[in-house]
Amino acid sequence: MHYSIILNPTAGNGNGSRVWPGIQQQLVENQVDFSMQATKDETSAAYFARRLATARHATETTVLVIGGDGTLHDVLNSLIANTPAHAQQLPLAYIPVSKLSRFARAYGISLDPAGALQQVLAAEASEQVHIGHYHDAIKDNDGYFLNSIGIGFDAALLNQRNQASKRQKFRWSRLAFFSRATAILYNQQPFQLMLNGTTGRLLSPKAYIAMVANHPFTDSRIQLTTTGGLHENNLDLIVAERRGWPLTLWQLHQFYRGRLASSRWAIHQSGTNFHLTTTSLEFCQVDGEPMGNRFLDMTITSTSYPFLQQH
């Protein structure tokens, strides 16, 4: 087995570069066959993955990502987009360098780099892990996500979290959450959302939270639902409407405590196919990365990709 490593040295506020020497030493001591490429900018990870996907490999190869969920997202999408038709997909493995990794928590990957590496080396066979796929009919583009895709409040909140974590060590305390959440709601207008899911077509005229999640964790410490997971085929759709400040604050309280999905004040559906349409420009995110403001005519489905890692 050969491990083609894609390292993001700036991930986790530079933690990627700090953990690499220890990982390299363990690989050498265990006589592991590996090569490493370090990213230099935001496009490097996708570029390295594209080269790996189109190359002919003399030995079995696993792509090992050392970085954050954003790096893993870029590598996954590039591998899928560039793997030739009928060619075998290169399995992925992941060593997170940030405590904020939602995918690591959902998959059961150790947040200690040494522990995550041992999970990689101990794996004997790859397994199919469920991920999400989206197609935007307006922009005619496709993509894949490991964690979630969100519109409105969820997208703005994750964007603020990411910006804050780049500037300082991030702690999502209750006070910090409600401070950011109320600031977002003061500036955000509810939007009209048409959704087609497991119960047919529904119109939500004053939506402000709309997200489709691949696993229960909306943050490294907030569990969105008690159902679903990376080894189940279903995605979770959660939609909430603005209903006045007292009830909205209660919804935020439920969101923070991971109980919004089971609340009577939210729509929660589990399924493998959803269609979302908006009539206004809304801020969107995928795996915590901003997609910008866009009109939405999006189909979201469940698919899978091989991972070679114990959990």
UniProtKB/TrEMBL annotation:
Pfam families: DAGK_cat. Coiled coil: none annotated. GO terms for molecular function: ATP binding; ATP-dependent diacylglycerol kinase activity. The keyword ATP-binding applies. Its cofactor is Mg(2+). Transmembrane segments: none annotated. Residues 1-138 form the DAGKc domain. It comes from the Bacteria. Keywords: ATP-binding, Kinase, Nucleotide-binding, Transferase. One of its GO terms (cellular component) is plasma membrane. Belongs to the diacylglycerol/lipid kinase family. This is Diacylglycerol kinase. It comes from Limosilactobacillus oris DSM 4864. The lineage of its organism: Bacteria, Bacillati, Bacillota, Bacilli, Lactobacillales.
